[in-house]
Amino acid sequence: MSAPAGKIEHSQSRELVLWSCGMGRLRVLESSGAFRFIDLFSGLGGFHVALQELGGQGVFAVEWEPTLNALYRHNFGVEVWSDINRLKTDEDIDQKVPEHHVLTAGFPCQPFSKAGDQLGFQDTVQGNLFFKVHQILKVKRPPRFILENVPNILRHDGGRTKDTMFNMLQDLGYAVKVAHFSPHEFGIPQVRDRAYFVGSLDGLDGFEWPEKHKDPTSISKVLHTSIMSSRPIPDLTLRAIDMWGDFLKRSPSSLKMPSFPIWAMEFGATYPFEFETPSAVWERRRKYGLSGMHVRGSFGFELDGLPIPEQRARIPSHSRRQGDVEFPRWKRTFIRQNREFYRDNAGWINPWMNQWQPWDFPSSFQKMEWNAQGEERDIDNFVLQVRASGVRIKRPTTAPSLIAFTQSQVPILGANLAGGRRYMTPRECANLQSLGDISLPESDLDAYKALGNAVNAKVVKAIAKPLLFAIPGATNTRTTRTVGAAS
User: Which is the catalytic residue, given 68, 109, 201, 219?
Assistant: First the structure.
């Protein structure tokens, strides 16, 4: 009598018996009673932390970055394969990849992210690595998998990328579901939406996604008040924070702060944007450009009488890209909103501009995103982040979404949160990813980058638990377990 496809059972001899579609019976020696998992594109090991806490045993990992490769071995005692593309053939995979019950993979997200070129599967460096995951699933046939990526992968290429993934996985015999979750929905003070795909060879009828919570969160849960950042905040960044702090203080208490990004370079500007762009004018009037049209550039700077190269320097960077003959609707809307906001508030904005001269700051410091509607306007009460889109000001309920940081994008804690303005430390960011006390890269920059690419272990654990232990027919014990029907 055969067991259901995909089911994992313990025999009396403490050997793990794996049943898998099309493979018959596999005997997997296993002394600890743990289910076995592999961790592809493992990074810092968020999947490993989660599944190990559920009683799993990591038996294989892949990570191409040498520092993280060595660190994974140090943290988890698992030898790490360096380049997944060296597993070229089915025979390579069959020989090199151990038998396992759960495959996990946070395959590269850049080709599917809205922040990238969105080449998807056409990205021959990273976008096609899903196909390598598919090949391993085809050869090794683990009963379960969990995949993670950016939520935009569900919409990428009009939904065709998601459909391709579903079709390929279902053709292997897997039932597949996908949903997206953020750490803040599990009590962790970080908003970081990610898509999670789960698959099972014996169906997902009994599987339920974990419940999302709406309990309040606070960044204080992850802070170490006795630890100070080893890297000082640059003087220019501190001055920009002071500038926007003064902007908030000058704003009338009766004024509702805008929910749209504030683009200070549009204060006083009158160059065309609704039906024509500066680039279109420069193409149409190749000798004079905007000169003689009696319009003004950034911060109301004069353009008349200037040659085109000097005109270009006085137009905001978001409006002077060559070839932009028409702005997208969202950009026209932001420009219009900022000009109207300035028109209605010039009485207190002009003295602010005269004092701080924001045109002397880099473009990213000339913009501000206020994400704390209704709060007291003291900038040191908040979590700050310098991004290309501006100085983002967030409530201390959550940290900004961890990304593969440049040094300038590490979250900054306001003085009232941390006893003085400082960057969040790598250890605090590791807490945001629920990674416990694992060792991190020695370089802060390397640590921040790795943490920005990491998967949140608590979110994975919440998804994996019902996948592994909640499908009907499974037992809910640590010593006798039917993994495959997920309880």
Answer: 109
